[in-house]
Every structure is written in structure tokens, then in C-alpha cells.
Amino acid sequence: MIRLKNVHKAFGNNAVLNGVDLHVPKGESMVIIGGSGTGKSVTLKCILGLVKPDIGTITVADKDIKDGDRDALLSRFGMLFQGGALFDSMPVWQNIAFRLVQSGVSTDEARALAIEKLRRVGLKPDVADRFPAELSGGMQKRVGLARAIAADPEIIFFDEPTTGLDPIMAGVINDLIREIVVEMGATAMTITHDMSSVRAIADRVAMLHDGTIKWTGTVTEMDTTGDPYVHQFINGLSEGPIAAIR
Amino acid sequence: MIRSATLLLGSTGRAVLNAIGAIGAVALFAAQTIGQIARPPFYWREFVSACITIGYFSLPVVGLTALFTGGALALQIYAGGARFNAEAVVPSIVAIGMVRELGPVLGGLMVAARVASSIAAEIGTMKVTEQIDALVTLSTNPMKYLTVPRVLAATLTVPVLVLIGDIIGIMGGYLVGTSRLGFNAAAYLQNTADFLEFWDIASGLVKGAVFGFIVALMGCYFGMTSGRGAQGVGAATKAAVVAASVLILAANYILTEAFFTA
Question: In angstroms, rounded to a whole number, what is the distance separating the alpha carbons of residues B138 and A75?
Fold first, then answer.
């Protein structure tokens, strides 16, 4: 479904991606792990076209993302941003139904769908008329999730879905993501350094370090692999090939 | 000595190149904005909201500025005119001064302070909180959704603000002229009407449209190119106000040359 071949990206002298090769088959939930500043977010942004790779090709359903109608391509995606990225000038229901309203769906229909999606992520309908600033961090994540799934996308990206949440709320969000991805049959890509998220969400895991994929495998393989990068990362060791101070 | 000279030349060269680069980037942004105006979709709701925020809510500050400026102008012209027995020119000079220069320039500067800063802060915050990236992933062009409605709204509403400011400014001169300087009310108004020409008013309105375009464009440009964090948004806001103010004054000179010296 999604394939990255030899993707490079540098910002000035700072090379962030140094030849990323990755394949995410249709319907699979891929989680990319790696330390801060290793290029996880840039990888997702390259696929979405928010950042233009310097070298390399990215294909979605065997079509190069540079070719064809970009809006049509993006309509296949849903994205949960790290900080929610909810539009603070509009109420929750308009955030969730944003794409639908822009595509000409009537206000009543869009609002009803937004409330349905709110229920799906465990929020009550009265949240619909509140503004994002009035919600807790966990509620904002749920609203962000509702917005990501509002148009029933084929591909969903989750950027650090549990950052800033307490462990219980993080568990709730992880379970919700897993349920929704399975229920929708969507292809999912998640970037995180929260190992509880990895174990709850992933079909397969990819380890990104120094702008390249160092290892890929299933969650079970991750626990037993002898790869020094993965071993150091999942066990939170300060000694190993990944420098503790970067 | 040679090393110091080289360093000085190097830093001067870098500053010049950066300045040229910035001018090019702003010009490109302006061209992209204009290019997007005619292309669908047009976000009417955003446009109406921007008209209210930029135009309607700027009325008090523009009105008060015009009122006090008109009054002060009447006092100054009366005092200056008294030196060569020309006190009678107060109504006509107040009117011409307000509609040609002070109405558009001071109105533009007040709108720059109020609107360029708020647009830059709003869009800058949207950028650093990834709301602009979110717009893109929701198949919405940020230039069309954020920039075009604001630039168009400012270009259309600032001339209206200038017109209202002109009327209030002339009224300020009238109030001071009749209450403090001993002018006859009817004669003051008659004098104002007699000497004011259509082009005096129209040129001020054209200036207002140009200044409105500059204000919103600077707010949007610096918001869209804002750096990270609170510091980045603060710097973008300051840069938007400074750039809008300087460009308004520069554009005012160029337009005055074009309108009145041909």
C-alpha cells in the first residue's frame, strides 16, 4: 500500500532521512519507533506531501505521490497529530466534520456524523459544541482521532498518539486506535517511542535511527531480536549503539 | 585590517542578499495570493468573518484616530495660517489633508497595528501547533482558506474605513473650528464642500485599498513563515507590524507621486 524507496531529506546541513526504505502492506498496522529527532515525523510528512523529499520515491497504492491529483490522494488519508492540531477557532463538531463540510455536505448531516464519530471515540454528544481549548488533553486526542476517521479513510497516520497523556488514558487511546484500525480495515502508520503503544497497536515494527530503517519485524520478533538498536531502545538502555546524548 | 574589511564586506553582502531574498519571497507570496483569488473554491464564510474582524472591529480605533487628528489639524492650520492672515483656509486644508493623506495613512497604520499583528499571531500559532499541516491533510489549501479571504477582506474594507475616517476627521476639524476657533458652522461646511474635489476623496480610497492589501499580506506572510514556539510567533507578529507600517509609508509616497505630480 505504502512504499518508500531510498528517501533522503535534509534541512540545510542537517540530514534527517538518509535513505529510508519501508513497505507497509494494505491493512497492516506499522509502528515506527526511534528516539527523538531521528526523522519519524519527517517520514510521515514526506508521505503526506507536507515535506518534499530531496531524493527517493514514495508510492501509495503503486502510484507515485508526486503524480496525479493531490487532494484526491489526501482524501484517502486520516491523520492524528501529536498535539491534536484541532482548529481552535471552531467547535468540536466542525473540527470533526471539516472535510465533509468543505465537500458540500449539509450542516445537519455533518453535525450528525460528527456526533456519531464522537460516540465512537467514547465522548458524549454535548462535547460537540465545545471549543478545543475547553477540553482536556485526553479529550483532545479523542477528538483528533474522531476527525482522523471522520471520512472513513483507507490509511490512517498516528503521530505520537499517547504523548502527554497519563498511563490510563494512554491505554484507552491505544485500545481505541487498535479497535478502529481493525474495524475499518485501514492501513495504519504510527510513530511513537511509547513501548505500550507499540505492543497495543503494531502488526509490524520498524526501527528508525540516523535517518535509516535499522530493523523491521513483528512485535514478537522485536522482543527476541538480537539487533543492538532495537534491544537498546525497547529496554531503555543508556549503553549501546544509540548515543544517549544527541 | 584586511581581515576586518573582508568580514565587514561579507556581513554587508549577506545582509543585502537576505534583504533581496526577503523581497523576492514576499513578492512571490503576493503573486500566489492574487493568483489564487480567482480560482475556486472561495471560502465565503472565512471572507465574511474576516470583513467583520478587519473592517467592523477596526471602526472605533480608526474613528477616534480621525476625530482627534482632524481636531488637532484645525488648531495647527489656524495657528500657522494666522502668521500670514490665512485663518480662513482651515476648513479646506483640514478636508484636503484628511482625505488625501491623514485619513488613509493614519487609518492604514492603525489597522496595521491592530490587524497585521493579530493575523500574524493567529496564523503563526496555527503553524506551530500543526493546524496548517492539518488543513493540508484535510485537502484544504491554506493559502486559499487563510490568506485569500483575509487579503481580499482587508483590501475591500480598509477603503470603507478610510471613508468613514475622512468624514469623522472633517467633523473633528468642524467641531474644533466652530467651538474653539470662532468659525460659522454653515460657512465651515460650505468651505469644506467647495474646495473638496472628487479625486481628493477617490485617491485616498485607492490608497486605503493598497494599504489594506499590504496589512493583510504582511500578517499572512509572516504568520505562514513564523518560527517555532512562542518566540517565533512573537517575532513574526513584530515583523508583520513593522513591515506593514514601513510599506504603507513607502507606498503612500509612491502613490502620492503617481496621483498628484503627473
Answer: 7
Q: Are the C-beta atoms of B196 and B99 separated by less than 8 Å?
A: yes
In a 3-state reduction of DSSP, which class is residue A210?
A: coil
- Other Cβ atoms within 10 Å of B3 Cβ, number: 7
Integer Cα distance of A195 and B262 in angstroms: 73
Domain layout of chain B by residue ranges:
1-39, 43-260
Task: Say how far apart CA A221 and CA A202 lie, in whole Å.
Answer: 12
CA–CA min distance A231, chain B (Å): 32
Cα separation of B33 and B41, whole Å? 14
Identify which of B134, B136, B140 has the shortest CB distance to residue A102. B140
Establish, for the pair of chains A and B, how many residue pairs have beta carbons separated by less than 8 Å: 46
Q: Which residues in chain A are closer than 8 Å to B137, comparing Cβ atoms?
A: 48, 50, 74, 77-79
The string of pLDDT tens digits covering residues B95-139 is 999 999 999 999 999 999 999 999 999 999 999 999 999 999 998
Record the cell numbers describing residue B134, joined without a space: 492539518
Grid cell in block for residue B239: 515583523
Q: Are strands A77-80 and A2-11 parallel, antiparallel or unpaired?
A: unpaired
**B32 within 8 A of B151, measured Cβ to Cβ:** no
Q: Dump pLDDT digits (tens) for A72-94.
A: 888 899 999 988 899 999 999 99
Q: In B, what residues contact A, Cβ < 8 A?
A: 41, 122, 126, 129-131, 133-134, 136-140
Please list the ranges in chain B whose pLDDT falls under 70.
262
In chain B, where do the E strands start and end? none
Between chains, do B133 and A81 touch, taking CB under 8 Å as contact?
yes
Kindly state the cell numbers that stand for B12: 554587508
Consecutive H or E run containing A169:
helix A167-184
